Amino acid sequence: MAVAVAAAAALGLAFLLYHLCFPLFISPLAKIPGPNAFAFTRWRLALEDFRGTRTRTIHILHKKYGPVVRLGPSEVSFNSVSALRTIYGAGSGFERTSFYNMFQVYGRKNMFSFFSGREHSERKKMFANAYAKSAMLKGANAAMVEAKVRQYLDLIARQEGSSEIFASLHYFSLDAITDFLYGKYGRTSCLEGSEADCALVNDIVDVARRRLSWFTVHLPRFTAWLYSRTGLFGRVARYFYPMQLPTTYTGIRRHAMIACQEFACGSPAAEPSETVEQTSPFIAKLWKHHCSRKTNGGLDDVDIASECADHLLAGIDTTSDTLMFLIWSLSRSESRKFQQKLIDEVRSISHESLNPYDIPTVETSDKLPYVNAVIKETLRLYAPLPASEPRQASTATVIDGYHIPAGTTVSISPYILHRNPKVFPNPTQFNPDRWIDPSENTVEMNRWFWAFSSGSRMCIGVHLAMAEMTTLVTAVYRKYTTTTVGDFDKVSPGITSRYEVFYDEGCSGVKEHECHIRFDKLAT
């Protein structure tokens, strides 16, 4: 008996030692540099997520250990163009991870949350042409963008001087994306003062959304169980919610579902026999693939609602946050020369390049070199999605000289790529001139620029976003100079992205979801 107990104890000890030693000494990833605490357990990185310091911590680790860093027992971060091509290039074989489950809407996967490249590709083929650059530069989409820009200028004029642009730019991007997606069946009117529509922006600024994101990713089953409790236990469970009901995006998702229902009930384009016009909203183009029009398969109402809602959510913060940081950066006293260069360029536009309402056309704005340089520098320094984009190796491979077993999570962060001092001198300095200076290595900088991802998973809305940004920036600085208000010359605005708050770290402080700017009319 004693021998059996001793043998069992020995086996248990051996099992324990193996699992303690495996991550640090036996794992194929053991040779990859990084702190032992991260290599030993995934909860060490999860702690940084909880603190809201994930991306900055990984950046520090890359500075210390180099371009390849081990972040967990089965997770590795890279910071090189070669790894970027290997992991995110078209046909790479690296699939999305369970992290992307948090982006499902109404319990349905959409193009963004599909794990497999095959499913993603099949869905993307249904509507990729709707987002083509040619579809944005002219026609109905260009007219829509120019109309929203005009409404934004009207809003600025009504506010007489100082404006809080975090909110107003969210109104602009929300009005634009809802018009593009739903047309009259779901477009919002924030810029025209609709209180109900403006309230939708409040749905996305609750700081508790960061905590909910953490629980959804790291404790998904517990989180789902907690929110599903009812009765007495449900009332007790509320005290433990990461975010009180209604949770983030509830209002926007409700709006998206109602818009889809309005379209299904009221649009002739929803009828199986109807053709879809080029001027029709995105949902009409997607409805061509509705199961009522397909003899085999097709999308049902909830699939279409989920897809549209995902595009809606993706099209709000990304554009508005970039525009906010752009205007704030140009408005600071240290950036006056950059603002003047921009003003000189946009005021040189000929009258023929304006629409009947004196708004620069989308096509004209797209071609302005300094406008594009300012936007690109803003995206480099303040990428709207700065954190790691995780992928999983489907087969064993070698990346940057290291063996990566199948099932390993690998990732790259735009924030870290864009701060490589060997590629971007003085990387934390806002300097649009770096993109047009012939002495700069712009070819190499463009290879490292990754604000819109790359490969088959590249942001499908890039051309719509650029149309909105180039046209609004051109229109604003044709009419106004901008300066910071109060302490915003030294204090940075802050944005929420997943678990973190991002801001300019060179400033003395940060004010989340707030940015006050003064608009002064230029002499005509």
TrEMBL record:
Binding locations of heme: C459
Superkingdom in the source lineage: Eukaryota
Alphabetic keyword roster: Heme, Iron, Metal-binding, Monooxygenase, Oxidoreductase
Cofactor(s) recorded in Swiss-Prot or TrEMBL: heme
GO molecular function, one term: monooxygenase activity
InterPro entries on file: Cyt_P450 (IPR001128), Cyt_P450_CS (IPR017972), Cyt_P450_E_grp-IV (IPR002403), Cyt_P450_sf (IPR036396), Cytochrome_P450_monoxygenase (IPR050121)
Entry similarity comment: Belongs to the cytochrome P450 family.
Protein's name according to its UniProt entry: Benzoate 4-monooxygenase cytochrome P450
Species whose genome carries this gene: Cochliobolus heterostrophus (strain C5 / ATCC 48332 / race O)
Source taxonomy: Eukaryota, Fungi, Dikarya, Ascomycota, Pezizomycotina
